[in-house]
Amino acid sequence: MRNNLDYDIKITLTTFFIVIILCIMISFSSPFIRRMQINKVKEVTTEVNKVAYLTFDDGPSYNTPKILEILDKYNIKATFFVVGPSYDEKDKNLKQIVNKGHTIAIHSYEHNYGYIYNSFDNYLRDFERCKDWIFSVTKEEPSIYRMPGGSSNVITRRENIKELIRYLYDHNYFHVDWNVDSNDSFSDHYTQVISNVLNGVKVNEYSGLYNQNILMHDTKTVTVRALPTIIEKLINENYTFATLDETSPLSQHVKG
Fold first, then answer.
1. Does 252 fall in a domain?
2. Dihedral of the CA atoms 183, 209, 71, 56 (nearest 10)?
3. What is the pLDDT of residues 35-85, one digit of tens each?
């Protein structure tokens, strides 16, 4: 009888100590588990959709076939804000842009700041000529446009810009600016163009912006040289690429 009692006491004490040890282990592990859960939440919430919109102004030009070849190599589509005037080689390149699946958008026909920003009517006349030229060559009817110098240009008064934007919006046209400037028009070396783009992207990311609307120029040889590296760097940063339309983040400097 005594032996049975001693045995029961040992079992009870053993069970008691096991329970105590388990409670201690759980109490110490709970903060660790919570930290793991918090880190997991952080990982989920910090996953973002990174999209780069490569845009080229002022073409088509002698550089257009080279740019298209680079884009083909990486299977990337871009947006081309085109300018006139029309002639055979330019029309041929315009068709090639469309045939390769890229987006054509309106920039200007004359690209003469003094003329197009001299009056409301002059701007609309130039706009219509560019739109009609695009349609005559490609049968495309673009719905987006980029003002020469952007909507924040200092050539004309801000109220004039807003009036144009409102008028064109009422006719189902949407203006696009940019949030990354390659500054290829003012860069003497292609490495500077690369730095300008990547630095602009980093500044946007620091502000929590992951839609990169990148301004480049079809006519600049430094851009052709910089483009492969820009693409590869963005791919390494997990960016995908898309073309612009009216549903995209349009990076508008001035609202209508």
1. no
2. -40
3. 544 454 444 345 789 999 999 999 999 999 999 999 999 999 999 999 999
